[in-house]
Each structure stands twice: as C-alpha cells, then as structure tokens.
Design brief:
22 strands, 294 residues, 3 helices, mainly beta
C-alpha cells in the first residue's frame, strides 16, 4: 500500500511517522462518479485536459456541489471476551449531504442512483485539492469504489427551500491507504458537467432552408446557445444518411439557419456527440425532427 500527497507543497510516500506538517485534505465539494476510468499516471491525474476529455467521453460525471456534509459511518463490530477480541463485521464508511437543485437537475442526479456503470468516486474538495486512489499497479489513479449512491428530494418547508438529500456508501473504508491527493490547475469550473441542449425549429422550413434555435436545458437556465459552428451539427435525411449543408451562425435572436438542397419532412438535426467548447460542454439528448412546408 502507498499514498501520494501533494497538498502541502511536497510529496510523501513513506510510512514513517516523523511528520511536522500534516497534509490533510479539505472538505468534499463536488463528487465525481466514474465508470472505472483510470488516469495513466499521477501527472495525468493533474492534467486539466485529461479530465475534460474523460468528461467529454462520459467516463467521469461531476455531480452537483454538496452542502451540509456529514459523516454517517459505522465502527467495526467486535466480539470480545476477556483478552480475546475479534472483528465480526467491518464498519462502513458513509457520507450524507444536501444539494440545492431544481427538479430537472434532481432527475439527472437520480438517473445515476446505484448505477451499475458508475461505481467509483473521485472527490474534488473546497480548497481545490482532489483525490482518488492508486490502481492495483500502483501507477494508475482511479476512483474509490462505492457500494451505493442514493438521492431523495425533500419538499420545501417554512424554514427551508426544497433540497436533495444524498448518501454515498463506500465499498472499502481502508482503500484510503492508497490515496492520491493532489492540487493542480483543475478548478470547479472544469467540473460543471455536460449541458443538455434543446433544438427547436423556428418558423417554416423549406427544401433549401431550416431555421432553429439551441437552448441550454433546465440546468443551463434556458439560455440561448449562440456559439455553435457547422462542425458541431449533424444533418441526417429520413433514411439516416448524413447530408451536407452550410450553416449561418446564430443571429441576434439566437436563430441558426441550415442551407442546402432537397430537404424534406423528417430530416433531423442534432449535435455531433458531446461538443466541447473552451469552458463548457453541450449535448443534444434528442434530435430536432424537421417539418418542411412545400
């Protein structure tokens, strides 16, 4: 077992106890669930571009900032008689927290509850440090294995806004003995996740022109997305074959125009997978189905 700590301006991999300065991580701010993704090295774990690529490919999913973080762990259960002592059940590490998010954001969070695919967790903390654990080879860095993630939405009361109560139970409370805790240029802005984009037809489409808008979904506040370019879109004919087109950038009202030939009803427009821009990522969960008026 080994640890790697870089949050006090240095590294520590020794097991001696002669430390003057204790390198203690700060409090969890953003949980990041993982599908088992492993960073190739500690250096890769500290590289912002690697984090962004892993998010774009949906290996990593940042959840929402947490508040009212509390420990709900249990101690080991022991059988003792005289000077005999034996652990009969290992304690469980569990945390609880609250998220102040909308209903649609709750629906997104709920979709990852006890997911069979996302079973590991990285932790980004309030002072900018973040952590994972070494993989079996002692070189790669992965998330801590979790046993469960559960979320429940609590309605508003006289003294409190509606909120989501979350619980994360870790599979092995002792895997922290392989902790990798670092600090780099990675910030919470790099962990805002992927924003859904809704595409909506504007006015009447013709055989040569389709006008539409792109709006960031609920989590994006319903804001118009006006920075997309032609390479961000895919235009398919009714058979599912890609068609060529020219894109006119969004105008002052956020309206894009696709220009081409031979458009018919049931053409579809969608984003080309997850589109990564400088500080944000977009995806269109549903394609826009076009209606053409002859």
């Amino acid at each position: 077992m080994s640890t790697h700590l870089e949050i006090c301006g240095g590294e520590a991999a020794t097991k001696n106890t002669g430390f003057k300065e204790q390198c203690i991580e700060s409090k969890l701010q953003i949980p990041i669930i993982s599908d088992g993704y492993e960073f190739a090295t500690v250096s890769a774990f500290k590289t912002v571009a690697t984090w962004k690529t892993a998010q774009q490919n949906k290996h990593l999913v940042p959840l929402f900032p947490v508040y009212e973080l509390a420990d709900a762990s249990t101690e080991d259960t022991k059988f003792e008689s005289g000077n005999f002592s034996k652990i009969t059940a290992k304690g469980v590490e569990k945390i609880t927290f609250e998220c102040y998010i909308s209903v649609c954001a709750y629906a997104a969070l709920k979709s990852y509850e006890n997911s069979g695919k996302y079973g590991e967790l990285f932790e980004f903390n309030e002072d900018g440090d973040y952590s994972g654990v070494f993989a079996a080879d002692g070189v790669k860095v992965k998330g801590r294995k979790i046993k469960s993630l559960t979320v429940t939405r609590i309605r508003a009361t006289k003294d409190k806004v509606p909120y989501v109560k979350g619980e994360i139970t870790f599979a092995d409370k002792d895997d922290v003995l392989n902790a990798v805790i670092v600090k780099s240029d990675l910030t919470e802005t790099d962990l805002e996740g992927i924003f859904d984009v809704e595409l909506a037809q504007v006015g009447t489409a013709s055989t040569t022109s389709i006008k539409f808008t792109a709006t960031a979904g609920c989590s994006g506040g319903g804001a118009l997305v006006t920075s997309l370019v032609a390479a961000d879109f895919v235009l398919l004919d009714p058979t599912g074959a890609a068609d060529t087109f020219t894109l006119t950038p969004a105008d002052a009202d956020g309206v894009y125009e696709i220009v081409g030939t031979g458009f018919t009803t049931d053409y579809t427009i969608s984003l080309d997978g997850v589109v990564a821009q400088t500080t944000i990522m977009y995806e269109s969960p549903e394609a826009l189905t076009v209606t053409v008026t002859p």
